[in-house]
Design a protein that fits this description.
The chain has 427 residues and is mainly alpha-helical. The protein folds into two domains: 104 residues, Periplasmic binding protein-like II (D-Maltodextrin-Binding Protein, domain 2, 3-Layer(aba) Sandwich), CATH 3.40.190.10; 246 residues, no CATH class. It contains 15 helices and six strands. The protein has a four-stranded mixed β-sheet with strand order 2-1-3-4, with no helix packed on it. The chain is elongated and about 95 Å long.
Length: 427
């Protein structure tokens, strides 16, 4: 154990002191801020302000249009055909022509210009016209528009309760499940690949021959896996802290500065969108937060151990990076398949596929944390955890048998069949 800790300390401190670690740790959260900044900048510069002359033959719609940051409207009394030849001289970019039409069959609305409307601008004009036509139809039926709007705004939320009487929320469970599954996928791939690269670098540089004179192959492999895992957790923790503070700074500088009209949306549209979103805002009351956190940490640790051991074992068996890609495909397939199962499981969390994939050690780290958000019987969770631990020890044992031979083998291209023979080698 002492030698494993020595390798662990060497791997950890060597990597966290590298300039690349410091640079990447700082750049990742800053890149998110940069992406948001670029997005806002592009939104601002892409807004093509248009002056539109509105020719409204009925006189019922021109006043409906409110100016936004992208569109400026002005009613014109000039006939449409005459204005076609002079609108540019009057400093207009286009003409919105609204003829008299049947409210039950509104046709003939036309936008005349050398410049095409953007998608958001076109949607804004169409929505405003459609809303005004709807109001006129309601008025023709003798119905008060305010009373109608009040009557049609129904907020209905189904409360889901399990056998124990605990409340739950499908929408929240779906979001949490997908988030946890994707985070697990990302972390396993990222830090498992770090183990793979580390093993291959040491083998290529022949440093491993010196190290193995002092420690056993299994001790070296486990120390490397745990050390790189600790590096990943450190980096992950720093990212969380930095993103937390950067989020606060963004809220201070950008809070309240977003104008709904910037995207061509009216205040009424924004209120309607906000009202709809309220229906989908879940509470944490029915979500087992404590169980989710503990289980996430459990499956993160054992899932990382499993895949880091497999990646490390495959890396020990190759001499060139091209061969590494071939041998790691079988290790990557279970992770990728687990993501596909996760997407299917979100809609049906209690199927046989969801159950078996949540107790199988190679897919459980991604599937079970996502299932917990939907509610999992205690016996299923315990069974999954027991099989996860047993499976991890078994896979580490297999990886160690591959590693002890592969790490000292040079100059020979290894196949999966030959790696299988190493498992039964008693040298």
């Amino acid at each position: 154990m002492r030698k494993i800790l020595l390798v662990f300390g060497r791997e950890y401190w060597t990597r966290v002191r590298k300039k690349s670690f410091i640079i990447i740790t700082i750049i990742v959260p800053l890149s998110f801020i940069l992406l948001f900044g670029i997005q806002f900048f592009l939104m601002a510069v892409s807004l093509d302000s248009l002056r539109i002359a509105v020719v409204d033959e009925s006189g019922n719609y021109a006043k409906r249009f409110k100016d936004t940051k992208a569109l400026y409207f002005k009613e014109s009394q000039t006939p449409f055909e005459e204005l076609k030849t002079s609108y540019q001289e009057e400093n207009f970019d286009g003409i919105l022509y609204i003829p008299k039409f049947n409210l039950n069959n509104p046709k003939g609305v036309e936008y005349y210009s050398d410049k095409l409307l953007g998608v958001q601008s076109k949607d804004y004009i169409e929505d405003e016209l459609a809303d005004e036509i709807r109001k006129q139809r309601i008025a023709d039926l003798g119905i008060d528009d305010k009373a109608y709007q009040k009557a049609r705004k129904v907020r209905l939320s189904i409360k889901e309760v399990n056998k124990e009487g605990e409340a739950s929320g499908t929408g929240l469970a779906t979001g949490v499940g997908m988030f946890m599954g994707m985070v697990m996928y990302f972390v396993i791939f990222l830090y498992g690949s770090m183990v793979m690269r580390g093993v291959m670098e040491e083998k290529t540089n022949r440093i491993v021959e010196v190290i193995l004179s002092s420690v056993k192959p299994f001790q070296l492999m486990m120390g490397k896996i745990l050390g790189i895992g600790a590096v990943g957790l450190t980096q992950f923790f720093i990212w969380i802290v930095l993103m937390f503070f950067l989020n606060i700074l963004m809220a201070l500088f950008l809070g309240g500065s977003v104008d709904p009209g910037m995207m061509g949306a009216s205040e009424a549209d924004v209120e309607e969108i906000a009202a709809r979103m309220e229906m989908f805002q879940p509470t944490l009351d029915g979500l087992p937060v404590g169980k989710l956190v503990l289980c996430f940490l459990f499956y993160f640790f054992w899932g990382y151990i499993v895949y880091a051991a497999l990646f490390g074992a495959m890396a020990s068996a190759v001499n060139e990076e091209g061969d590494l890609q071939t041998l790691t495909i079988p290790v990557s397939i279970p992770i990728i398949v687990s993501i596909f199962i996760l997407m299917a499981m979100i809609n049906s969390p209690n199927t046989s596929l969801a159950f078996w994939s949540s107790i199988f050690p190679l897919s459980a780290p991604i599937i079970m944390p996502a299932r917990i958000a939907f509610g999992v019987p205690t016996w299923e969770l315990v069974l999954s955890m027991v099989l996860m631990v047993l499976g991890a020890f078994f896979i580490v044992w297999i990886a160690a048998r591959i590693y002890r031979i592969g790490i000292l083998m040079y100059g020979k291209k290894v196949t999966l069949r030959e790696i299988g023979k190493w498992l039964f080698y008693r040298g």
